[in-house]
Amino acid sequence: MGRPRYLRVADALRVPILDGALPPGARLPSRAQLARRHEVSEQVSRNALRLLIAEGLVESRPGSGYYVREVPESYRFARTDRFSGSLLRPLAGEDRDTITRPACDRMAERLGIGEGEPLYRTRCVGTAGGAPVAVHTSWEPAVLTHNTTRAPGDADAETGVLERLAAAGVVIDRVVEEVAVLPLTEPEAVLLRLAPGAPVLVVERTHYSGQRPVETSDLVAVVERCRLSYRLSLARTPAGGGPRPDPHR
Amino acid sequence: MGRPRYLRVADALRVPILDGALPPGARLPSRAQLARRHEVSEQVSRNALRLLIAEGLVESRPGSGYYVREVPESYRFARTDRFSGSLLRPLAGEDRDTITRPACDRMAERLGIGEGEPLYRTRCVGTAGGAPVAVHTSWEPAVLTHNTTRAPGDADAETGVLERLAAAGVVIDRVVEEVAVLPLTEPEAVLLRLAPGAPVLVVERTHYSGQRPVETSDLVAVVERCRLSYRLSLARTPAGGGPRPDPHR
DNA sequence: AAGTGGTCTAGACCACTAT
DNA sequence: TAGTGGTCTAGACCACTTA
Fold it and tell me: Where's the HTH gntR-type domain (chains A, B) (predicted)?
């Protein structure tokens, strides 16, 4: 009774899609067919299909029909704790580009330095299947590797931050990552070929050496095609020592 | 010309919302008023408003009107590695609810058990400022704590999985979290009071005891209101042992 | 040429809110 | 009681794909 008809029609399609009876690529009945079959108006079948589209299960091809959506291959960012060399797997198909800029107030705060201090900013675009899927932008105080052969631009693309800075005598022992979904802003929108305002997955990451932040970065990733995969160890230190857990309240 | 009318009506509302001329909480013209003002049918103003709702700019209050959405304070989920008692800070304002169900194929796979084996499913809704912000659903093989006082329903809400299962003799030493942004589906949509299809932040988490998965859960969180905060240690275990400094400070 | 999805019009009923 | 949003019906035209 109370349940709106378009939800019932949507249910009738969602079930076979989710259990595989309607596999990806399969064509759904047309609006008119659905309307006849469920004895509803065409608007009702429209609403049902629109809902399934919004849920990401169905796509429409104008002039052709509604189809079960192919699940897009997703790009997985692997993150782990202490046993990992670099939390961020190097992006494939990258064009790395390093420049020197004075710290803006936001970066000065994230890196705990003075505004205007020189930073290396490194940016690269990750692609998968020809399409850009993520933009990674990293900022690092120039003072750390200035006049060494370990500046961001010197290292080859496969070298992680941890190795590079370790070689420069900076030991990274801690990382903080903030994950959020934010509206896409203009500069990244161009690189990702998306409309500004589209939701994107953002990871703000900061590497620390003791109390001191030594590198910070933003990963801006296309929502539909990216996943983060955290693999974390929870084993207590074998020796009976070990301080009590800090639950970060 | 070609631009559909409902997009033009939506534009006419989006501009004043984004530049603050229509502040959060402001009431928009009703469907009928919009239709008259723009000389379109009421369905067109309906479509325009539905688009703005999907964009997260507007909310509807049935019987009352359409309003510019209040931008909510965000809720932070703290995650850490081995020093944390529970990765997921207990949700505030929770209504915990535990039932016993046979494992569906998806859960059987995640938990590495046979389809149909009994599971405890625990669900709670996290709220902030009165509004639901996340749904956490956890699945755990009943065999682990069956006939003990450590089943999910027995523990008080503040006890984390790690402590509870440890008390039942199951030592969790590893966790894998998959973070993605997915379209919201119907069952969670009701709990979160959101439209199905809205993007939500999803964390699929699995706790392991050695190679064996012992608990898995889905956290479905409202995108605009939730952040994940990972604090991870990268320090190698020092050979000498001794009490380790807390790396999360 | 027929079918399809995208859009649009012009009505309607219901449950709910505001007054 | 009047207004509102949510849903629904029964039509229609257009651009596009398919055969």
Answer: 3-71
Assess whether B59 and B113 both reside in one domain: no
For residues A200 and A171, membership in a common domain is answered with yes
Q: Is residue B197 part of a domain?
A: yes
Q: How far is CA A151 from CA A241, B48, B90, in A?
A: 39, 51, 42
Res A203: pLDDT: 92
How far away is chain A from the Cα of B182, in angstroms, using its nearest Cα? Answer: 7
pLDDT on residue A243: 34
Q: How confident is the model at residue B132, as a pLDDT?
A: 79
Q: Within a domain: residue B238?
A: no
Q: Which domain holds residue B161?
A: 75-231
Residue B21 sits in the same domain as residue B95: no
Question: Which residues make Cβ contacts (< 8 Å) with residue B156, sequence separation at least 6?
Answer: none
- Kindly report the length of chain B: 249
Instruction: Say whether residue A185 is in contact with chain B using an 8 A CB cutoff.
Output: no
Give the pLDDT mean for B184-210. 83
Residue A244's pLDDT is 34
Global pTM value: 0.73
Domain ends where: A53, A68, A83? A68
Of A35-39, A151-155, B89-93, the one with minimum mean pLDDT is: B89-93
Work out the angle at residue A157's Cα, subtended by the Cα atoms of residues A153 and A162, and round it to the nearest 5 degrees. Answer: 85
Please give, rounded to a whole number of angstroms, the shortest distance from the CA of A208 to a CA of chain B: 9
- Does the CB of A30 have a partner CB in chain B at under 8 Å? no
The residue assigned the tokens 């003791």 is: A210
Q: Are residues A143 and A181 in the same domain?
A: yes
Residue B164: helix, strand or coil by DSSP? helix
Chain A residue numbers with beta carbons less than 8 Å from the beta carbon of B161 are none
The number of folded domains in chain B is 2
pLDDT band, residue A88 (cuts 50/70/90): very low
Amino acid at B213: P
- Do A139 and A89 belong together in one domain? yes
Averaged over B224-242, what is the pLDDT?
A: 64
Q: Which nucleotides of D are covered by protein (CB under 7 A)?
A: 3-12, 15-18
Distance CA B89, CA B143 (A): 25
| A54 with B196: Cβ contact below 8 A | yes
Considering CB atoms only, which of B178, B182, B237 is closest to A56? B182
Contact B243 A247 (CB under 8 A): no
Q: What is the CATH classification number for the domain harbouring A34? A: 1.10.10.10
The chain B residue lying nearest A236, using CA atoms, is B82
CB contact under 8 A, A199 and B223: yes
* pLDDT for B20: 85
Distance CA B191, CA B194 (A): 8
Which of B18, B115, B222, B230 would you mutate first to test chain A, the one with the most A CBs within 10 A? B230
